[in-house]
Amino acid sequence: VDTDWLVDGKPGFLDPSDRGLAYGDGLFETMAAESGAIRWLDYHLERLRSGCRRLKIPEPDETILRREIAERCPPAGRAVVKLIVTRGKGARGYRPPAEVSPTRLIGAAAWPVRPEANYSTGIELIRCEIRLGRNPALAGLKHLNRLEQVLARAELPDEHAHEGLLLDSDGQVVGCTSSNIFAVTGRELVTPEIRYCGVEGVMRRIVIETAGQLGLEASGRAMRPEALLAADALFVTNAVFGIWPVRSFGDRMYATSPIIRALQSALGYGADA
Amino acid sequence: VDTDWLVDGKPGFLDPSDRGLAYGDGLFETMAAESGAIRWLDYHLERLRSGCRRLKIPEPDETILRREIAERCPPAGRAVVKLIVTRGKGARGYRPPAEVSPTRLIGAAAWPVRPEANYSTGIELIRCEIRLGRNPALAGLKHLNRLEQVLARAELPDEHAHEGLLLDSDGQVVGCTSSNIFAVTGRELVTPEIRYCGVEGVMRRIVIETAGQLGLEASGRAMRPEALLAADALFVTNAVFGIWPVRSFGDRMYATSPIIRALQSALGYGADA
Predict the structure, then answer these.
(1) Backbone dihedral region for residue A140 (phi beyond 0: left; psi -120 to 50: alpha; all else: beta)
(2) Structure pTM?
(3) pLDDT of A7-38, one tens digit each?
(4) With DSSP H G I counted as helix, E B as strand and the rest as coil, what are the percentages for chain B, rounded to 5?
(5) Residues of B in contact with A1 (CB under 8 A)
(6) Which chain A residue lies closest to B156 (C-alpha atoms)?
(7) Contacts of B151 in chain A (CB under 8 A)
(8) ipTM of this complex prediction, to 2 decimal places
(9) Interface contact flag, A130 B135, Cβ < 8 Å
(10) Tens of pLDDT along B88-120?
(11) What are the residue ranges of helices labelled H in B33-158?
């Protein structure tokens, strides 16, 4: 494994008593490092802070986080930098300790190689069988409880030109195994609301903000899979790969959309980026 | 933290790239050690094996597990021994690696001191606000995704004479934050079915088996909170504390039940055990 972790500021390992392992009691951010800096770092740190507040984990000092993240960014080229913040160690049992001393872990991994065609012609969308449980208390958070995503990803064949579509236990669209999804109809973008489950992706937020700047409507709403079939075009987003169009979902094929091109171009993603 | 972990057979720490931390991609068992041996060890190992099969994690060699667990049992007195098995390290991303080398972690902690009255007069049952998401793919498993239980436990005051009652997103009773629950009516025991969520507790299974030996009916069924109020008596079970009667649930008080006493006595639990 090509990682080399900083644990609370020093190269090292994790105490197995940490609540991050015991209960998945923590949060993470997966970030794109490019030429020595993290893209969208402020957005990642803002989501982390918001997650800490919701889970009542004390927020790690941001100056320290920024310094340690910078230490783990390779000076040139691309890499994926991962930040994990857990509720730290504590007495045995689910109850959070009265005095929490969070653990922070920062590691870097090689940039994943993706087919260029993912950006131009797009990817295949495949519906996963597993459904996500609904829990408003956890919806939106990038927390460490990800077994549902692991099982969903295991349903898919092993190559990169697809994403797995996830529905919740009520049949609503949530997003994809590692990304959020948007439907384009006319000049309107719709993405599933993050109310009962799913992650509030950093790139989801950036796309919604950028849509406004491009004169497009964008909103989060309850969505059924039929809404995906009825749309002009679909695309998926995450903070590492950016924006990929969807070329097919079952029998439905989607044409290239100038709106997706405009978003890719505004944010610096594309086959030539 | 009074633990001293064996990681893959050697005293040590965890690689932060382990999928147990990254995704909660693993299982655990919390076991009662007494006078140098684990109570109900065969049941714990059987549940672990069944969980590994469902999550497609290769089952660790049982001879090795038994030896390492024995190493961590104090020769005298009581302790809690925890076993964690994860899907090990793997490439970045949710997809399980093609070749899995599971990580096994074994640690011991001090025996928790509980009021004697928990066994005799019983505990208070308090309904938690948080609801559990429903996911049949994870129901029954003692997996490492336990944020819901952490948030539920955090709702309760900090003392030991209570358990938090958990309902699922549909309003069905699932169990308690750290235990399963049984309702006693006449000579019949009913416990919530473990179909959409919840853990198949080792002590839940033992109580169902023992009920048969004592000439009692016992079954798992869909249950609403009203069924708890209508029952003659309630009790909660886990493999560490055993069996505690419930003395109150909201305004409802429950009398001491000879059936609960018979189960405690058959299994060696009680104020004098």
Answers:
(1) left
(2) 0.96
(3) 999 999 999 999 999 999 999 999 999 999 99
(4) 25, 35, 40
(5) 15, 17, 89-91
(6) A95
(7) 55, 137-138
(8) 0.96
(9) yes
(10) 998 779 999 999 999 999 999 999 988 999 999
(11) 41-55, 62-72, 117-120, 147-154
